[in-house]
Design a protein that fits this description.
Order of helices and strands of chain B: HHEEHHHHHHHH
Radius of gyration of chain A: 22 Å
Helix content of chain A: over 70%
Largest interface: A-B, 87 and 84 residues
Number of helices of chain A: 14
Radius of gyration of chain B: 23 Å
Oligomer: heterodimer
Chain lengths: ~290, ~280
């Protein structure tokens, strides 16, 4: 009986997940048939003309998460080194508890802070470059950086703590300073775990919806004119998640092709975040093998 | 020179830690400072009036609680089932690892995808309209990995001698589950659920298409077409289109209440997590 019920509920859970993946594939089929691979690379999204190109949204997601990772990685890694290598046990636990508590701040609260404070700061700070508003890709990236910071710190700390203490003692006994021990012994040994921390944080950044939605400007079809310029960061954009969170999701259901295009964005997001998580977890696991 | 390097790395790492903790604590401080003036007894007991400019968040709190309770009830059996399958019934490391990979992947999926899933299956196909129960289901999916993994970890921490003793007494595996494993791992279920609920409480993306509206709902009557008001959606809507200072004050108040709820849920899970941590390091 117990065994049957365990399997029953597990299969319900796994079946639901399989159904979820299946639905995203199946419901987006019309758009793949309509656009082919052009759906991924197309730069124009005009649903009234039945033109569906997802590239501006993919670009937006990549830029926003990239900015977040570039900003969060150095601070997060530095903080992880500090908690794992310098702090004694009790304060380390205290900082970790605090950081994990802060990881739970709901994204809508971050969104509120972004919309009422951060976007004004960004607008004022970059006034010399004439941004049209404070709703920019940069704003979303900075906000996301703060949101993924706890993930980077706490997973980075775990990765560093997984390096056996004996290794550090041996290095110190050979006459290496503490800094040399960290840079030449602890960090290289923890690199897989640290990489996993960054990948998982990147996955979270990709999937974050509400906070990004509130500050990214949600402007369709916005791609940079020049590559290798930082100016496009100060323009509004659209990410996969902000598009999915918008009103277009509600109005598109009546039109199978339009709906397929919207669900297709979900499928892209599903594949991207799923891949990041799987690679990140597999990558991290081998570090302690 | 080497001394200097030693000092520099310590200073740099310390600075990073200070900045990280400072930003995050500062942000909580800002919410607390701006939200505190709005808090009063009536803020918790009245309904919204004048599109958020007056009144309180009573029904939003009620709705959020309804969602959390239903999510917890739906998630519980699935999490217990998955954990038992992983720890007791599955034979072979490969299938166990596959199951855990599924759980980790599920954990990494953006919550908006659960929202779309709920929208397609329940709102459109089953024609339920917006309903609190859909919210419970999608939030349960979101918290499922957290709860299952916490339970699995606790099950793995049970000393093998307990199980061996029970087996030596002639208990079947099902009896061992009920007499030894579940009573010992109960705490893991509670801790995991609290952490999962803390995350679910603040979710907006999965519920906005499936179960919540901005105003005009009280107790749900039945399942079909019975939406609820919720705190996160309230904040989400008001944050977008309100420049009225009266609304602003209430908005920060609502954000502070939500933050308080989330922190409360994770803090009551804390003692047992610390205990786990101690045991893991001992």
């Amino acid at each position: 009986m117990t065994r049957a019920w365990s399997w029953f509920f597990s299969l319900v859970a796994i079946g639901t997940l399989a159904l979820l993946v299946g639905i995203f594939v199946w419901q987006s089929l019309p758009v793949w048939r309509h656009e082919g691979w052009g759906y991924l690379t197309g730069t124009k999204w005009f649903f009234r003309q039945q033109e569906f190109g997802a590239w501006p949204m993919i670009y937006g997601s990549i830029v926003v998460s990239g900015v977040a990772l570039v900003l969060a990685a150095p601070f997060g890694m530095g903080a992880a080194i500090f908690t794992a290598e310098y702090l004694p046990r009790a304060p380390r636990l205290a900082v970790k508890v605090l950081i994990e508590l802060l990881a739970g701040v709901p994204s809508v609260v971050y969104g509120l802070l972004g919309i009422l404070l951060l976007r004004n700061w960004i607008y004022d700070l970059f006034a010399p470059f004439d941004p049209l508003s404070g709703d920019t890709l940069l704003t979303a990236g900075v906000l996301l950086a703060v949101m993924i910071l706890p993930t980077v710190v706490t997973l980075g700390d775990d990765a560093l703590r997984a390096v056996p203490a004996a290794q550090r003692r041996a290095a110190r006994a050979l006459g290496l300073t503490r800094a040399e021990t960290i840079l030449h012994v602890a960090l290289p040994q923890a690199r897989r775990g640290l990489g996993a921390a960054l990948l998982l944080a990147l996955g979270r950044a990709f999937g974050e919806t509400i906070a990004v939605f509130l500050v990214v400007g949600r402007q369709d079809n916005n791609l940079p004119e020049r590559l290798l310029s930082l100016r496009p960061l100060l323009e509004s954009g659209q990410t996969l998640t902000s598009k999915l969170g918008g009103s277009e999701t509600n109005i598109s259901y009546g039109d199978p092709l339009h709906w397929a295009a919207i669900v297709g964005l979900g499928l892209i997001l599903l594949v991207l975040t799923g891949a990041l998580t799987v690679i990140g977890t597999a990558f991290g696991r081998r570090s302690d093998a | 020179m080497r001394r200097l390097g030693d000092f520099l790395l310590a200073a740099l790492a310390g600075l990073c830690a200070l900045v990280s903790v400072g930003i995050l604590v500062g942000l909580v401080f800002v919410v607390a400072q701006r939200g505190a003036p709005a808090l009063s007894w009536s803020f918790f007991t009245e309904q919204i009036r004048l599109v958020g400019a007056a009144g309180g968040i009573f029904w939003n709190l009620v709705g959020t609680m309804i969602l959390l309770a239903s999510a917890c009830l739906i998630c519980g059996p699935m999490a217990i089932g998955l954990a038992l399958v992983e720890c007791v019934w599955l034979r072979g490391d490969r299938s166990r690892r596959a199951l855990r990979t599924v759980l980790y992947t599920l954990n990494g999926l953006p919550s908006i995808l659960f929202g779309l899933f709920g929208f397609i299956v329940f709102v459109q196909w089953l024609d339920w309209g917006k309903s609190w129960l859909i919210g419970g289901i999608v939030l349960a999916l979101g918290m499922l990995p957290t709860v299952s993994v916490a339970l699995i970890e606790r099950l793995k921490a049970i000393p093998a001698s307990y199980v061996e003793a029970a087996a030596a007494l002639g208990l079947s595996r099902a009896q061992i589950v009920w007499a030894v494993l579940l009573p010992q791992a109960w705490g893991g279920l509670i801790t995991g659920s609290l952490l999962g609920l803390a995350r679910a409480a603040g979710e907006t993306a999965p519920i906005m298409f499936t179960c919540t509206i901005f105003a005009g709902a009280t107790w749900p009557r039945g399942i079909v077409e019975s939406p609820v008001l919720t705190l996160p959606y309230h904040i989400f809507i008001l944050a977008q289109d309100s420049f009225d200072p009266a609304v602003g004050a209430k908005l920060w108040g609502a954000a502070l209440v939500l933050l308080g709820l989330v922190f409360f849920l994770s803090l009551i899970a804390l003692p047992s997590r610390l205990k786990m941590h101690e045991e893991a390091n001992a």
